[in-house]
Amino acid sequence: MTYSFHAIRWLAFSLVVFSYGHAKASVRVTSVDCPSISMVSLDRAITFYTKVLDFHLVKMEDSSSSARLAPAMPPKATARTAKLSLGDECLDITEYSSPKGKPFPDDSRANDLWFEHIAIVVSNMNEAYERLKVAHVRFVSNIPQTLPVWNKEAGGISAFYFRDLDGHYLELIHFPSGKGQQKWQMPSKKTFLGIDHTAIAVSDTQRSIAFYRDKLHFRVAGSSENYGEEQEHLSGVFNAHVLITSLRAESGIGIELLDYVTPTSGRPIPSNLHVSDVARWQIPLEVSPGSSSVKKIDEFPNTHWIKVSDRDGTDREATWMNDPDGHLLELIRRGASMEPVKQ
């Protein structure tokens, strides 16, 4: 009996996703909070997200004195932050006035490891696509793509990649009946419904699962292998062949791992990519109060929890770290003793 290349590659992928041994987790993530990105102009970004994509402005604050961002900011940094909401989900956007961050690299591709996007769920893809065309948004996909029916996990899902005014990648996604979370199947008169997940490019699915599932207690919610002309036209990457793994915590949006089998030309995250740089995303992860100190996990370079108080008087502890490919994570622990969990 012989097997095609795709069948062999899928078998190996499945073994990684579903059979990789579980290590005892020292930090239990309970929720994925609002992703955070840097902007060139906060006012311009607010207009784009609220007028084109129907986000709502929740609040604005001076981040130079914000406990939410201060520990991760460069010394003497000044910035303004806005919290935007869409449905039940949210997005934090920040403009750094000092120091100014580097702009988004002009030659970025979807397979570069600094790639990250949020997937905005829509009730009607055609209506959403027309809204983008009227706004003269920068497209990545040529047109919305519907994934083929042979793809058991993703078949029938339609998606479209585009970029905001500062170059951040964004995705529109529509789930047909039987796909995605039940909340996305509810009837709605709104076109833009909420954020399903944030997607990140990774270099090694097995290594990323070992980190997110076995160290942070995410669960693998699904997986697929996407290739063919639909995936090429969606991502704008020629010969795109992607292993996709969906991760979920107990609540909040998901994290989706995008591992490009081909092409292999994706570039690593630069070591000098700072939180103020436009290409730098930050993913906040709420952890259980009893989670142990991160100094017990070798992969985490930042071992210090910082105790801060938000403006509403809520105490929390936070620490920042990179995942195996350099994506920036913020761990947040609220109302907890700093005593580590016994191993």
From TrEMBL:
GO terms for molecular function: metal ion binding; methylmalonyl-CoA epimerase activity. The keyword Metal-binding applies. PROSITE patterns: VOC. InterPro entries: Glyas_Bleomycin-R_OHBP_Dase, Glyas_Fos-R_dOase_dom, MMCE/EMCE_epimerase, VOC_core. Keywords: Metal-binding. The keyword NADP does not apply. Residues 31-175, 194-334 form the VOC domain. Gene3D superfamilies: 2,3-Dihydroxybiphenyl 1,2-Dioxygenase, domain 1 (3.10.180.10). GO terms for biological process: L-methylmalonyl-CoA metabolic process. This is VOC family protein. It comes from Tunturiibacter empetritectus.
